[in-house]
Amino acid sequence: MKKLTSPNILNPQLLSPVDPQIEKYMRSLTTATDLPLLSAMEQFAYDNNFPIVDRLVGIFLAFLSKTINAQRIFEFGSGYGYSAFWFARGMSADGQLYCTDGDPENLNQAKYFLQESDYWNNINFQTGLAQQIFHTTEGTFDICYNDADKGDYPEIWTMARERINPGGFYIADNVLWHGRVALENPVDIMSGWTEAILEHNKMIFEDPAFDSFINPTRDGVIVARKK
Q1: Which positions ≥6 away from 173 have C-beta within 8 Å?
Q2: How far is CA 108 from CA 20, 86, 112, 116, 210, in A?
Q3: Does domain 35-226 have CATH number 3.80.10.10?
């Protein structure tokens, strides 16, 4: 299986939050999730160098969804549905998962992978700006998940926090940003993204309405539970 090139190899300045050997061991414990559909979605990511949360974080997302029997989930940035697969696996059987992505081809790819699964009928996948779709989608949510452009993270947190049910979760990926958040002068992918993530994380941990924690697996996943 072709693997994504580690960003730490391309830029030795960057940091791995969890030692790769530890992640390899943790991954070895997940054989019960070796499903043909899941393997096909992961193979697509490796073949196309498409960033996904990968297996360990996926299991974590399903676990969080299941712990609160999530009924309504909104994703800011869904790619081709890999994280949606995991959220749908953990949410209530009659739940609704709202997916968003700016690229219509990702919707086509998500449909290709998921339409034969038990989950597709519970997924509402729209293309366009996630923030605008969120604004026009009524109601509150048990989980709001953020994996959009990193420069938009503070704005998305501000929008999402108001519409999360008590006991529900705000979850965001890439909050350690390959260690850039811990470096004095990091080399960024896009100007201002590291600063936006730092602001985002600080806002969440200083918010008295939420209890927050960062799971350092892969690239860091923040979980904020509304009190």
Answers
A1: 53, 57, 83, 145, 146, 147, 219, 220, 221
A2: 33, 18, 6, 13, 36
A3: no
Strands 72-76 and 96-101: parallel
Identify the CA nearest to 155 among candidates 219, 192, 199, 210.
199
Q: Tell me the residue length of the chain.
A: 227
Which pLDDT band, with edges at 50, 70 and 90, does 78 fall under? very high
Helices 104-114/82-90 angle, 10° precision: 50
State the number of CA atoms in the 13 A half-sphere of 211 facing the CB.
5
DSSP structure class, residue 6: P
- Identify the bridge partners of residue 123 per DSSP, sorted by sequence position: 97
Q: Which residues pair with 215 in a beta bridge?
A: 221
Residues 6+ apart with CB under 8 A from 14: 7, 8, 178, 179, 180, 186
- Domain edges within the chain: 35-226
Compute, in degrees rounded to 10, the torsion defined by CA atoms 144, 150, 154, 155: -70
Q: In the structure, what pLDDT confidence band is assigned to residue 135 with cuts at 50, 70 and 90?
A: very high
Backbone angles phi, psi at 71, to 5 degrees: -100, -35
The answer to whether the pTM exceeds 0.85 is yes
